Amino acid sequence: MVGKGGAGKSVIAGTMARILARDGERVLALDSDLLPGLSLSIGVGVDGGLPPLREAAEKNEDGRWRLKRGIGPARAVQRYATAGPDGIRLLQAGKIPPEGIEPIMGAVNAYYRVIHRLNEVSSFESWTMLGDLPAGPRHIAFDWAPYASTYVVVVQPTAQSALAGRRVARVARMRAGVEVVFVANRADGAADVAHVERLLGEPVIAAVPPDPSVAEAEQLSRAPIDHAPGSDAVTEIERLVGALRSLARDSAVTSA
Ligand SMILES: Nc1ncnc2c1ncn2[C@@H]1O[C@H](COP(=O)(O)OP(=O)(O)OP(=O)(O)O)[C@@H](O)[C@H]1O
Ligand SMILES: [Mg+2]
Questions:
Q1: Atom of ligand 1 nearest to the CA of 210
Q2: What's the CA gap between 200 and 42, in Å, rounded?
């Protein structure tokens, strides 16, 4: 999940994770944003404290971070991903504490190493990996989602958001073999959707409406799917999950 700041990445990612997990998939939610978001929309509350993953990291003789001996990607997920609702596993790089980034540097380094080795674990092939990336194109460029086969660019119906979305999409499309699709968020009706598509110059695969229950959920520190399971926003995110499944099926057929 990528896009401009505040576009709705975390709300959509967290809700998708819950929907997929309820459908029986093994979901690993991957949170590389150093600011809060995903844990709230998944429904494990506000992030507190230092990331468990810091236990996986140590410094070598040159003062560079590495994974501790004996900790590979499978063990890192098993030990340091936390349990969320519906059986979701949540692996986090960590959130910047008030005193600055230093206390989480080990975890951030361990996270980057672990996500680059998820493909070594054969049992993960049947899992669904769902990442919530920080705003902007930088993390795509620096390969913070090597597990992704599809980038979902979230845009709002404003010129500024669409411009940012197009830039993010262009960076994502430089990666070989990935799909890049757009989702409109806070799109109020057909006119808004048409407006977004005109600004983007291509279609969106889903359009999540502005929904007061999403804002309410945030105020209550609850997941949108727990606070308002039948809301318009959650219903559309369910449709989005279906659309992404068809896309994955189609591209599997094409590549076969
Ligand atoms: N469809 C919607 N209707 C109403 N409120 C929404 C909707 N989508 C998101 N919001 C609210 O907008 C804010 C931003 O959403 P969210 O945190 O998901 O964006 P983000 O792209 O992850 O932001 P960041 O770049 O800061 O990580 C939140 O307060 C969220 O509750
Ligand atoms: Mg976010």
A1: 3
A2: 29
User: Best of 10, 186, 237 to mutate for ligand 1, by most ligand atoms within 8 A of CB?
Assistant: 10
CA distance 94 to 101: 9
Does 139 contact ligand 1 (Cβ within 6 A)? no
Beta strand pairing status for 65-67 and 150-155?
A: unpaired
Q: What is the pLDDT along the chain (256 residues), one digit of tens a residue?
A: 999 999 999 999 999 999 999 999 999 999 999 999 999 999 998 777 899 999 999 999 999 999 999 999 999 999 999 999 999 999 999 999 999 999 999 999 999 999 999 999 999 999 999 999 999 999 999 999 999 999 999 999 999 999 999 999 999 999 999 999 999 999 999 999 999 999 999 999 999 999 999 999 999 999 999 999 999 999 999 999 999 999 988 877 766 5
User: Which residues on neighbouring strands pair with residue 81, listed in sequence order?
Assistant: none
Q: Which residues surround ligand 2, an ion (CB under 5 A)?
A: 9-10, 37
Kindly report the pTM of this predicted structure. 0.97
